[in-house]
Amino acid sequence: MTHHMRGIRSMPFRITETIEAGRDLERLVESTKRDGLVYTVPVLRNAVLGGLGIRRKKTAENVVVVGCACYGTLDAVVAGFHLLDALGIDYTILEKEYCCGAPMIAYQVRVGEDRAKGDEAAREFIGMNIALAREMGAKRVLYFCLWCIYLARRFYPDCDVEQIYYLDMLREPMRQATLRLSRPTEIAYFPGGQHRSWVYAPDRDWDLDWSSYRGWLDRVEGLKVVDIPKYCCVIAPDAIFERAEKHSMSTVVTPCMACYGRLQRRAPQGVRVKFLSDILLEALHVGG
Known about the structure:
Elements: H1 3-8, H2 13-20, H3 25-35, H4 42-51, E1 62-65, H5 74-86, E2 92-93, H6 102-110, H7 116-135, E3 140-143, H8 146-155, E4 162-165, H9 171-176, E5 180-189, H10 197-200, H11 210-217, E6 221-227, H12 237-246, E7 251-254, H13 257-266, E8 272-275, H14 276-287
Parallel strand pairs: 1-2, 1-3, 3-4, 5-6, 5-7, 7-8
Helix pairs in contact: 3-7, 5-14, 6-7
């Protein structure tokens, strides 16, 4: 089985059908050029970010691209922005943000058509975001959405504006931070299966720094962590929760925004799902 087919089989038809909303590739591209995002429209995007207190600056070293999928995981988005604030990382957002093209690629693969057209659209839209960031004097683009960063690094690996997953921006600040929780806490850590990333960035020889994200938790005083294997959150979410239950853990934490959204919607009663930023933010508020 090829990597891209392995990944696409973890995307249920009802999900892709909702994303596409009756649009073929041409219409997905057309609506993205007009509205920027596939899942939402500019007025809603601006209202949500404004309601969260996220203000756009004219210039900053870092530009945050939220990603249209993340508007379904706003708790994690809030934690992400607040963590950047707590660590003193300066950032701004784009006036208009464009979809990374992942839905176009997924559509082409799912219907069995040449994915080159989807790749072309993705390269164009990511390039538009980079051009806007460059105009603002940004040195790097920080992506909240997992699929955005995989595609950005695939199509723009040596860009003059660095393309990184926003957690990677935390490496140095986390090394210097004191991390302590106010009371003993136990969590089950799900690293994110990362299976679907092969749909968007096949045949790559790199990956994100998943081990570092996990390693930060070992430095949190008062935190006990049980590791869950890399199951797929779409195909086997129950296995994730069953493993947590086996260790009497009622909180599942993940560094993958996509997995966070999926698990949050599938969590059994009495089980909490948190994004990694939530735990780090809690520890910083006590230790800082």
